[in-house]
Each structure stands twice: as structure tokens, then as C-alpha cells.
């Protein structure tokens, strides 16, 4: 009786014929492209907001805003000027959310336009030839 390792070795030594298939991508569904681009841009928007908040927290905890505040007070000559009130966490987070929402709208529209342009160009070029193998 043979062990499992011997069976696997014999199986790997056999030549397995791979079948290759060539297909043409001739159509991209509009709503699938819109949904896909929407989900991608929403995830990128979430990453943007989290990254901006984390960067602000790191800069605030290292004291960079305080140092920048002191430098700008010396340069401007105004003792009432404060960077920390101008660049608070709530303002930075709100700005990042607004930018993320704009990116979602623009990215979704670009995904829809790209699928329409591909579908129109397929009429001229015949589609994209893609090869697949079966292992």
C-alpha cells in the first residue's frame, strides 16, 4: 500500500494536458461597471478619510501644529493667530469627507463613461482577445 506522499508525487509527474481557450470580450454591462466603480470609489473614499484623520492625529501628537503655530506667530507678528483652531480635527475630517464624496461621484461617472466608450469601440475593433487555460 502506498502513502499519500507517493500518490501525490506520481500525480505531479503525470503530464496534464492543458486546454487553452481564447475568448473575445465584446461587451461590458453598463450597470455592472457603474456598481463596480461605485464600490471601488467608496472603498477608496473610506481609506482617504481614515488616512487623513490618522495623519492629523500623528501630527497633533508630535506637536508639529504647536511648533508651526509659534513660527507663524513670530513671522506674522499677530499673537492671536492660531493654526490649531484653523486646522482642527473636525474641519480636517469634514474636508476629507467632502473630497471623498466628490471622488465617489466623479469615479462612478468615469467608470460609466469608460464602459460606454469600450462598448462603442468594440464595434470598430471587434473586442479584446483574452486567453484562458484550464489546469
From TrEMBL:
Domain DUF3566 span(s) in chain numbering: 19-133
Keywords, ordered alphabetically: Membrane, Transmembrane, Transmembrane helix
InterPro entries associated with the record: DUF3566_TM (IPR021949)
Superkingdom in the source lineage: Bacteria
Record-annotated membrane-spanning stretches: 36-59, 92-118
UniProt-recorded name of the protein: DUF3566 domain-containing protein
Organism for this UniProt entry: Salinibacterium xinjiangense
